[in-house]
Amino acid sequence: MAASSESTCFDVATRTRSYFALDGKGDTVLDGKGFPIPGEKEYTFVDRLCARETAVVIMDPWQDMPSDFLNTHYKRILNDKIVPLAELAAEKGVKMVMLTNDPRFVSYSTKTSPELEAVLGRYHAERVYHGHVKREKFAQHLKSCGIKNLIYVGFASNICILDRELGMVPMLHQGFRLFFVPEASAACEFGDTWQTQEIHKYATVIISQSIARLIAYDALMAALKNAP
Question: How far apart are CA 30 and CA 10, in angstroms?
């Protein structure tokens, strides 16, 4: 059973990149004329997240894609990272949302691993089908549940997580605070980058520059474990 979310809040280290200088709150530093001051670097913060205001959004965690290579490539991250995170976050009262395809209309890329299905079922996670809900309605629903923060995990960091209808960019424009866990995701790589995960690294940099704050997987897990 999930813990009461009324008292479950936790602090977690986050980071973001910016060309312009940021203050301790993450706001742009201005000079005496009101212009942003250059200060290009990676900035670190400590964000407080409360379970009742936070949802983990699991994007397309499929294991029945029409590519055995992709299924194998993503499986380790799915079961070793996403499943434990989903279980612990849900146990603490964080809302779980899985975005996927409707199997009534799509014959592949609809199924996830049995391990994740067990967690989602145990904690009554929401399953939202692509194409069934527009971004405005999805945002309105989440806000009606008191959700302000979205933590994105899943696949792929350079495609669906960024620009699906319910992905990070649309939800940024709907007013949510966004977070991304790079270790609980992966890109659709290309050519000789599958071993180095170069594209995933670049996607993570882009996400951190203007879209979401990054949370290290181990830091998030530790913060959740120590939460009341």
Answer: 31
Strands (E), the chain: 9-20, 38-50, 54-59, 95-100, 126-129, 149-155, 177-186, 213-214
Cα angle value 15/148/125 (rounded, 5°): 100
Rounded to an integer, what distance in angstroms lies between the CA atom of residue 101 and that of residue 107? 9
Q: Cα–Cα distance between 50 and 82 in angstroms, integer? A: 20
Integer Cα distance of 8 and 157 in angstroms? 29
Other Cβ atoms less than 10 A from the Cβ of 78: the count is 24
Instruction: Tell me how long the chain is.
Output: 228
Query: Cβ(125)–Cβ(147) under 8 Å?
Result: no
Report the alpha-carbon distance of residue 181 to residue 29 in Å, rounded: 27
Q: Residues 152-183: pLDDT tens digits?
A: 999 999 999 999 999 999 999 999 999 999 99
**Tell me: the pLDDT tens digits for 87-120?**
999 999 999 999 999 999 999 999 999 999 999 9
Determine contact, residues 135/164, Cβ cutoff 8 Å. Answer: no
- The Cβ of residue 80 has, within 10 Å, a number of other Cβ atoms equal to 14
User: Is the overall model pTM greater than 0.90, yes or no?
Assistant: yes
